[in-house]
Amino acid sequence: MALPLKTTLTIVAFGGMLLLTDLVPALQHYKVFDWRTVPKVLDFVDRRPSAAPEQAEQQRLRPETEPLKQTRYPILDPQRQMDHFYNAIHRAASHPEGAHVKVLHYGDSPTTADMITADARKLLQKQFGDGGHGFTLIAKPWAWYAHDGVDLNGQGWTIDPANQSSAKDGIFGIGAVSFRAGAGAQTTLRLKDKTHSAIELAYWKQPGGGQLRLLRGEEDLGVIRTDSETPGSGFARFELPAGTSEVTLRVMSGPVRLFGWSLEKARSGVVYNSLGVNGAYVSVLAKFMNEAHWREQLAHYDPDLVIVNYGTNESMYAQFVDYASEKEIREVVRRIRSAAPKASILLMSPMDRGQRMAAGEIGTVPTIPRLVAIQRRVATETGSAFFNTFEAMGGVGTMARWYEAEPRLVGADFIHPMPGGARIVGGLLYQALLDGYNKYKLRLIQKTMVAGRR
Fold first, then answer.
1. Which of 49-53, 130-134, 212-216, 372-376 has the lowest mean pLDDT?
2. DSSP β-bridge partners for residue 211
3. Which H or E run includes 6?
4. d(Cα 344, Cα 382) in Å, to the nearest integer?
5. Do strands 186-191 and 158-161 pair parallel, antiparallel, or not at all (unpaired)?
6. Both ends of the chain: CA-CA distance in Å?
7. Cα(129)–Cα(377) distance, rounded to whole angstroms?
């Protein structure tokens, strides 16, 4: 049965429009259809979601590997400077109360929603104990700012991220964001986990500084006075009554300048601080943070491990990658080592970043492999450890494969992982840390056996 003439002409015209973008080079960026996907439409293989999509995707990305080894990619640490972190874990395991293993994880937009970091936190705390959620900002600088298990509802704050701030003093606390307010501003923090035993507020002491009050419902937990003749970092710690699920911080008089609050538990375990800033790149730590102030902050939080996880945003600027990134990465390492000389430093490379190529396919942004190589070399030359996230997740073309995966593992920008993709990266980091710790324990056993023979 023949189609009506008008319908036939419409179909032909539509097909011609689709073909035009393939035939005319000037229109290659306007493609709306990929002819290579046609066979997939006729492929009736059962593609129901796997019961373990992250593991299934890893198997698809690296089919040549053994299933039990496919999620393992080592931390490169020839100088064994991760041993301080591993020793902290080992020490906490033998102390049932109060021995915390503290991790600071600096990152860009995925970590602003606690993605990757939340997955690593859960796995490490399940294995080595839960020392508490750690640091969160006072309020949400971005609508999508979130921490797993924590909800923030703030109002009345003037918010200054380090990379977007009109304040040029570099005073942004440990989390690279500061919050200013007068009387009436407040934030309510809600906790799913009611077993936290203490909360600590980080603020800026300043002449004429105002007062704050911390409340649990109608119960007054205490007052914080931020007035000081000498400006500097201030910290106020409060014990939380058992079963606390909500606290409110209220500005009673102004001005005040705050940074964030930290949640801890009395028991031993890992405290994994997710310190993501939207649009962040390595300059945030190398230039935008006042060095003396950041040193003061790092000294207070006394980390066992500092993870520096940047690269996605700077990857779009080839000149920065090739001519400036190395210098700034070195400066970050120098600053951390100066402030926290015992801490392990782990440079964690960016994930793959995809873009539409000339022919319409999704490819890796060319600067990503170059930036990863620079970071690896700087890690080696500065005596830092290095985790190659890019290669661990699949290398060149991973975001193309993730975008085509079912369920999809990356968003349409080929940058930000979906929850399933974030779980893969968080799991890869965890597995690398666990493998490194197991090797550390093996060395301890061997050392003990050798000493016993003497």
1. 49-53
2. 225, 253
3. helix 5-23
4. 12
5. unpaired
6. 95
7. 34
Give CATH for domain 52-129+268-448.
3.40.50.1110
In the chain, where are the structural domains located?
A: 52-129+268-448, 137-266
Query: CA separation (Å) from 368 to 74, 225, 317, 335?
Result: 20, 47, 10, 25
d(CA 409, CA 365) in angstroms, rounded, equals 18
Residue in 100, 86, 76 with CA at minimum distance from that of residue 342 = 86
DSSP letters of 232-270? EEEEEEEEPPTT--EEEEEEEES-EEEEEEEEE-SB-EE
Give the type of residue at 454: R
Q: Tell me the C-alpha to C-alpha distance, in Å, between residue 143 and each of 263, 278, 324.
A: 22, 11, 31
Question: What is the DSSP-derived secondary structure letter of residue 300?
Answer: H
Matching residue, tokens 């109060």: 98
Burial of 11 (0-12, 13-18, 19+ CB in 10 A): exposed
Closest CA to 116 of 370, 352, 349, 419: 419
Domain 137-266 has CATH 2.40.50.150: no
Instruction: Enter the tokens of residue 353.
Output: 């970043």
Please tell me whether residue 120 adopts helix, strand or coil conformation. Answer: helix
Residues 105-131 have pLDDT tens digits of 999 998 999 999 999 999 999 999 999
Find, among 435, 311, 425, the residue nearest to 57 by Cα.
425
- Least confident interval from 70-84, 184-198, 284-298, 421-435: 70-84
Rounded to 5 degrees, φ, ψ at 416 are -90, 125
